Amino acid sequence: MATVVAVAETAEQFEEILQKAKRSLVVVHFWAPWAEQCKQMNDVLIELAKEYAHVIFVKLEAESVPEISEKYEISSVPTFLFFKNCQKIDRLDGAHAPALTKKVQQHSETAKQDLNDQLRKLINSAPCMLFMKGTSQEPRCGFSKKIVEILNEHNVRFSTFDILSDDDVRQGLKVYSNWPTYPQLYVNGELVGGLDIVKEQAESGELDKMCPKEMGLEQRLKTLINKAKVVLFMKGNKATAKCGFSRTIIEILNETGVDYETFNILEDEEVRQGLKTFSNWPTYPQLYVNGNLIGGLDIVKVSTYNC
Prior knowledge:
With 307 residues, this protein is α/β, with parallel strands linked by helices. 45% of the residues lie in helices and 20% in strands. It has helices spanning 11-21, 36-51, 66-71, 97-123, 142-153, 167-177, 195-204, 206-210, 217-225, 244-256, 269-279, 297-302; strands at 5-7, 26-31, 56-61, 79-84, 87-93, 128-132, 159-162, 184-187, 190-193, 230-234, 261-264, 286-289, 292-295. Strands 1-3-2-4-5 form a 5-stranded mixed β-sheet, with helices on both faces. It has a 4-stranded mixed β-sheet with strand order 7-6-8-9. Strands 11-10-12-13 form a 4-stranded mixed β-sheet. The protein starts with a strand and ends in a 5-residue tail after the last helix.
């Protein structure tokens, strides 16, 4: 995070700073070189930047960038605007160092809490969550590549977050977890550690005990066909059938008033091909009741069954 005061000399630079800041708090000082009070407040800004390293402080000469000054109704200097997520959230007019310090402190704590809430949600977004450089398909560093290999070798079911895509998360998680490096592995919301610890746990057998396992295809298919009393595997979904056969079987089921769920085979090629072999039925749609295959459209047309 920056520990100096940035300077926005154009409207484009100003907008770019806001865009890059994302969730971070941005404090903008609209100033003028001829105003002595502004010079004093610039010194205050420098000291605040040292204390609040996660806050972005910006100087903008009000008369040099009139379109921005007019947009935010800057009629006097010094004026301070506070931004978050590209939106203005507060304002302070005049050279009031104590008031500026108080507002920075208040908004900084709120921004930090918001980030911590986001980190907590990310960590708990999957039973096994890996924060890494890149993705499981395309790791962007050797450590991340190695930990992905270990998890795959042990058939661990895990999700990933690419820290290179979000610097707020990248920096914030180091503080949140008190762990300074990446990758970081979490299981059930708790930090396991980095590559070295995961290696040790893989060797000791602890990794297999604590991490959820990836389902094999057969187990996954069994789970899918039993997810409801009546399940239809089709092209599309209830609202939008993607072929005439699927559309017709949906119409039949709707006319009967049966409660049923659907699975769109167009969204999962592994299921699409695997279910043909599993059920020994080569075409779609396929209708299952209580986990048992009824058949396709022709059989459903002539069959009567109690759902």
